Amino acid sequence: xxxxxxxxxxxxxxxxxxxxxxxxxxxxxxxxxxxxxxxxxxxxxxxxxxxxxxxxxxxxxxxxxxxxxxxxxxxxxxxxxxxxxxxxxxxxxxxxxxxxxxxxxxxxxxxxxxxxxxxxxx
Length: 122
What we know:
Blueprint: E1 2-5, H1 11-21, H2 27-39, E2 43-50, E3 53-62, E4 66-74, H3 83-94, E5 99-102, H4 107-121
Parallel strand pairs: 4-5
Antiparallel strand pairs: 1-2, 2-3, 3-4
């Protein structure tokens, strides 16, 4: 599995993954989210590639000392396989000098991933 930096060519695919994690958000709101990733230098989105398939997205707001996972979404066919945890790990590898956090929607999952990784390092 690898992370591929978001490009505008992936917009429809990324919006599809966002709609998995965003519930019943109107299309306009999803488009605004995509615009933020495209225009705000502090917001980074990556598509998750498994062999030749794009299977998810992970997006974060990056600050000086930390990053906040804003969005994390996986194709339902790939859920329950540990890919979400691997996505958070790969994102940490992209920003090794920054502390990972989650927002109100992703915090429990991100905290669990970070805790498991900390335990594994001991």
